[in-house]
Amino acid sequence: QERSSRLSAALLGEDSEISRDQLYELLKYAALGKCHNATQPSWCRIYHQSHLAGVVVIVLCETSQLHFYKFYLQFKHLRKLFRHRFTFTPSTNFLASLCGGGANPKPQNTAQGLTSTSSECIPKSPDLQYDPIIQKYGAKKQGLTSYTLTLEEQKRYDYPIKGSPKCRGYVSTECDQRRTDSSPLFGLDCEMCLTAKGNEVTRISLVDAQGRCLLNELVKPESTVVNYRTRFSGITRQMLLPVKTRLADIQIRLKKLLPRDAVLVGHSLNADLQALEMIHTSVIDTSLLFARNEGRRFKLKFLAKAVLGKEIQCERNLGHDPAEDARAALELAQFFIEQGPTKVAELNLEMLLTTEKLAEASQNKAVSQPQGCQAQQQWNEPPHLPKTCFLDCLQVAGQKPLLLGRQELDSSGLCQSNLSTSNKQILQRALAAVPLSTFSIIQFSLGPEYVTSHLLTGLCDKVRSKLTDMLTIYAGPFEDSFCLKSVKKEFGRCGPICSVTVVTETQQPYVCIQYEVLEAAQLAVESLNGAQIAGSCVKVQRPVTAAVLDCDVLIKELELDVENEGVIYVAGLKKSVTETDLQEEFSQLKDLETLFLPKDLQTGKHRNCCFLKFQRSQSAVEALEVLNGWTLKGSRLRSRNALASGHLWRWIRQMNRSPGKQGGNMVCETVEQLWHLEQELRREVRKLDQRIKKLYRSLQKNTLCVVLFPGVNSMHGPQPGLGLMGIKDDRGRSAC
């Protein structure tokens, strides 16, 4: 019996956002299997990779998640073909980064004096507003509190969090005083050895804001050392023999040394705090502070040299010096705070890193070549950036990749455009060439006329307005003396509420309620319309606006979306209910696969709703019948089919937090032009959807297909990218 490849991805809820490295990880493993150090992706799993017929990546250039949901009804085939979806951050050179290259699209001459801040010595960038540092922090200088990690970021980057099950037994520094921009900074770094327990601290250094070393001690690990990692830690067996200091002693000393408003600074400081088994709420992580695209991070050694002009972690020394590393991280944070994001962005660190790698590669090549060949090759070969490593791996494996579209990678890994190629021509070439290639990248484009900043702003405002209207319901009329608290309580049983306002412009009062999730608003309309609430029989409806005229159609299509198959929404949970309670309570439901309990990003407390994902759609239907009216800890539950997947739920919250752009200063002719452009764009999207359908139908069974909306970096801020993926099965759909 022929074995089929299968794709599994747990992308329900907050896990639906991935980095560019994780996407690259998936494509590399799918194409190469276990060759060239390729491993199973950490965020999804491919079963029977060796049975894959091929890998096809379809890139819809100049598009983002915004385009998918603005033209959701027009992407009729695309949304029915792929069950798995995820989001990612946009990049300036998407094609090169997709293949694993880190090339900068605009090479520039770099300066010799890296630490100088004069305009003559710093490479300037015409696209400074697109720099990840500017996009993250803005252009203006801010105080140190603006650069400390939020609770959400600490959770995302695996920092020890108070109350987390993984941090039981951890010791708090008890630095709980409110931080200000004048709070003291302390640099911290640890060296670890591998023991039977895991990573354990064997040396710790703490420096103050003036760079003075307050603590620099060896620590005796509790468990047997498996690997001293001497090359990096500098620790040897002989060094630890006379040591009496234990981790508990260090924890006590740190608590005494740190003032109540201390801010700790370090490079990937989460690893140090985890090894110290300590919780500290206010941290600056320099590996995240100097932001990069695609979730990558600069090494401390590079930053120290490029920003501070200091050489650290020299190869002539045995291992790293934690005091030196702690001091370097501290000075980097001080530099960033004092100079501000713009000055740091002007250093053009990506270009400096590329230059450094080129110099190293050139030096290594010169050493490995016979002397007589070096001079001749320098004359015959123009200087260029290294080839992208993913394409190299494919070439070595004997798989010549196919690249079709308006952009191509030249020998340097840079993108070259050919605007004369149409989508129709690309499709014709793809239908003929894709079956002959095991790895293909096919690029379709909407065209430059559809990616103007005015059109993008207009689309963004319309999507935001539509989502707001769909999340909003009006209820009433009520008596003049009605109890608002009881109304809020009743409607709150449908899901988390964003805001409640009383409408007094009517003869009798109405209530306007905006929910945080689409399911809650829809549940309120379906279950509370005509109900007796606060002594009145109320009508519940959405606002009557142009944006929601097709709301019923959109709701129906969202329910039928393959990504929502087997997923139901449950509301009415009490605040005291934990995830463990829900697991136990719902364990009797047949074929339950995943439970997602959303949390408030600021407080960390869970919402009064959850999502349940079942292995089979029929099991979800049966669970709905059981759950409606189910009582949990005295609270009656309400449930319905899911409408918004994890990535869409996250995006709705971001859209609601983002301020809308004002377009009132546009002249009428411009507004009319934008309207015509939008109608033309709608037609182009339908054509694009048809072309993807044709291409997908031509693929062999067991082909992994990934469709990417790469995201857009615009003057109005980054619009996240969206990915859809699946392995084609016998029915022509993507297999789970």
From TrEMBL:
PROSITE patterns: RRM (PS50102). One of its GO terms (molecular function) is exonuclease activity. SUPFAM superfamilies: Ribonuclease H-like (SSF53098), RNA-binding domain, RBD (SSF54928). One of its GO terms (cellular component) is nucleus. Pfam families: RNase_T, RRM_1. CDD domains: REX1_like. Keywords: Exonuclease, Hydrolase, Nuclease, RNA-binding. Residues 471-545, 566-644 form the RRM domain. PANTHER family: RNA EXONUCLEASE 5, RNA EXONUCLEASE REXO1 / RECO3 FAMILY MEMBER-RELATED. This is REXO5 exonuclease. It comes from Zapornia atra. The gene is Rexo5.
